[in-house]
Amino acid sequence: MTLYTLGYEGLRIEDFIARLQQSAIDLVVDVRALPLSRKPGFSKRALAAALAAAGIAYAHRVSLGTPKPVRARYKRDQDVAVLRRDFGAYLAHQDHALVELVELARDRNACLVCFEADPALCHRTLVAEAARAFGAPAATHLTAR
Description:
This protein has six helices and five strands, in the order E-H-E-H-E-H-H-H-E-H-E. With about 140 residues, the chain is α/β, with parallel strands linked by helices.
């Protein structure tokens, strides 16, 4: 199992898929609470179809997304420390989802996907860190290049 993360901010769907293919990703795990996007190709159904056409499996795990109150607070105050604290507290109660993530990604090159380009500002990094307690390797954060 290899675990990656990637944010699609600033990428077109074609470039996003090319980046996944460069890293031999065979499973995308969408960790958005709401898998909707204003960016063409990144809403759940369109993303899953585009990935399938490229030979990449897709799974959505809503329980690994940022809950609405945590998202709303971050949008309001932009305080990354509070985001990490609040999402970390939520994630502490998601053992089942984290175990499921590790099992789903076992023996695959899996990539946790969300919008935010900078992994230091995104909850997917916290998901990857929490998954380590259940057997996942340290994540490699992919960038647009």
